[in-house]
Amino acid sequence: MSLAVVNTRAKLGINAPLVSVEVHLSNGLPSFHMVGLPETAVKESKDRVRSAILNSHFDFPARRITVNLAPAELPKEGSRFDLAIAVAILAASGQVPRDHLDQYEFIGELALSGDTRGVDAVLPAALGCLHQGKQLIISRHNAEEAALVDGLEILPCTHLLDISGHLLKQTELSLWDSAQLESIKSAKQNNSRESDNQSQLNQVIGQHHAKRALEISASGGHNLLFYGPPGTGKTMLASRLPGILPPLNNQQALEVASIYSVAGKGVRQPIWARPFRAPHHTASSAALVGGGSSPRPGEISLAHQGVLFLDELPEFSRSVLEVLREPMESGEINISRVAAQVCYPANFQLIAAMNPCPCGYLGSQRCRCTPDQINRYRGKISGPLLDRIDLQVQVTPIENNQLLNQQQVNHKDQPKGESDRQIQQRICVARERQLKRQGKTNSQLSSEELKTICPLSSEQRHMMDHAITRFGLSTRGFYRVLRVARSIADLAGREQVISEDYQEALSYRIASEQQSTR
Amino acid sequence: MDRECHYALVSQHLDKFTAKFQRQLLEQAQTYCAIFERSVDDFPESFHPLLDNLRKQYERATWREAVDLITQRLADCGAHIIPATSADYPDQLRQVGGAPCLLYIRGNIENLHLPQIAVVGSRRMTRGGGDNARTWSEYLAAGGFAVTSGLAHGVDGAAHSGALDGGGKTIAVMATGIDAIYPRAHLKLAEQIIDQDGTLVTEFEPRTKPLATNFPSRNRIISGLSLGVLVVEAALRSGSLITARYALEQNREVFAIPGSIHNPQSRGCHYLIKQGAHLVEKAEEIVDQLKGALSGLALDAIPINVQRPSAAAPLEPNLETDELKLLSLLGFEPADIDSLIADGLFSAAELSRLLVALEMKGLIESQNGRYQRLK
Ligand SMILES: [Zn+2]
Question: Are A399 and B336 a contacting pair at CB < 8 A?
């Protein structure tokens, strides 16, 4: 019987569903058909497979060749099936043994010469492969990425002949030595952790209020808005957040790496670090939230488990900002296309920055913006979006004399200038508390849950009522304060939220400068 | 509409009959009626061509469409016309060179004849500036002055509100049409002014939109209507300084409230003081200064004890030790958290909390991330 079946994997979102490549040779006029609704790219692979087989000095069977990619309903794209198709044809025509084919999965593209080439989204496929308990035969170029999956047996190859040699038990492929990679991984990790003192939070001069807000934000997973004139270091502050967030655990790291893999960005280093993405406000909606005919992950998914920094928030198009609301609520984004509906994780922490007025210098001589212009500028950020930003922090320009004072003064905040590692430890403990108590971070607490988790004493209730009238706090603003206060208490290791926590929480809100006259 | 008003309105829509021409001709004719009805022979010969031209234009009724529309719009919003020739036209304004030939008005006409004090200032005031505008206006209005201002954001709005709080009269001079309240946010305030027997007034036709060129002209009417102009807070090169300059040209008193040298909204006031404006620290000083100009105003009616929130009330007795410590660190000049932390007494977290506590007790205010003592 001239039938062979070879396993490979498709790419669907950040998943890699199993695909069987079935090849059947029958008598009749020589032809080469593919069924299973493959896209143009798969059809092109016919030519590559034929050339690769011929250039490897095998026979290309002069028979009626039918290739079926199953399941048929799965959208298939890319050149990732080349290797599997070639091997299946060789097996069906008896040029390699087909007995042990089911021990392997094959993924890779073929050059006309028969050389193997790397493809994207290898990591999800590798995870799937491990799950099935198979060995993965892939191009040498993808080995490093696949090796991120602990325990997977990888057989890297550089040419179609390597594979036939292995299947014919002539020259066996050797397993990828992941121990060797391990040492590279940890070396790089240490490198980035220790040598990078310049990018630590304690290197930022002044801005103590903002730094404290970052720590609270990290502790409770709160979104944060920096608000202030240009040149106050809003971007620098935001970029320091990943350094104090708890490192990714194994599973999170793989999930994040999978997204980068699917996006064709290869292996990110170090894989334990929280991502930091800062798309420009001119970025298209597709670039930001994901898209394309076969949807790729956008910036918000590349920021999954990390930080999405949006500078000049009001400059982003309104439609883009509206789209952000869904992932901010659910931690994922659904993208519908004709070809497929995919869902990418997008559980990011939003750090946004904006100027107080269109020119940026409100409150100083240079600003000539009218109240109407200012209102219009601020109005670009919709209320529902602002409601999801628990911490709203005013940053002020750094006075020159502070640059000098910085060296001399020992702040109580940073006795010896705490390192990111020290802050990170405190934050890990605070997060641990939250997970133990409520199974999620404080930023995800609903108003209902807050009522039981942050019950207000009558004295505290009285104080908050006063704050509501004094600062014109909305109902949603009130709950934002409760969530932040909860995180402040957790940072201090307090199970009870005390009045002082609420007071401090009240300071992370933007005072409305536009005073009503009545 | 009586005939005088009718002719006055029509005159605004005749070709080549500019405000300047109208004023010249009125010196001779005294009324708009006379321009169109009195025998030409009563006028010097040099006026005859102009009068002929005007009367021909009147006959041709090219003005009718525009005038009918305006009449309708005035009726729709309950507004009236006061020509410069009317006894209702405020004398104070009439004395000013280049006074408008026609005023559109809603609300109480009598208010225009009250002694008025203009309270003006920045559209982006500080909280302290807003408090001053409100409480001083309250005091002045309670004392019998009509408080005149421009209905703008910031100090203007606070001045109108303060006057209403004081149970007094207030006049809003607009740079837009009488039925085109600007800014829109002050729609409610404008209605309140009418409800509480105040007045809206403008020289611009109904439906006139806010145009930058109309604002200086409006400011000129504000100062022209008033005995004196109080500038509460103003940046350099602001509209309030233009009002003050008109006031000097029109021989009105100018008062300015000083402030912090670090507050850009005080620079304008300091500039005025250097130029010779009265430096005032209490609303009473304005009354004292204007006493001379006021005969007939019931000074007795001015209450001595108008409560001012910023007056030196005793410090709240129930301040925590830390709150007291921080309060003594804070000056009357704005300081940000970074400069307060440099004293090493408090951490950022403690400072954030204490500042909120003090702000809630009304002892300090924050502006653009800087904090300042109020008391
Ligand atoms: Zn500006």
Answer: yes
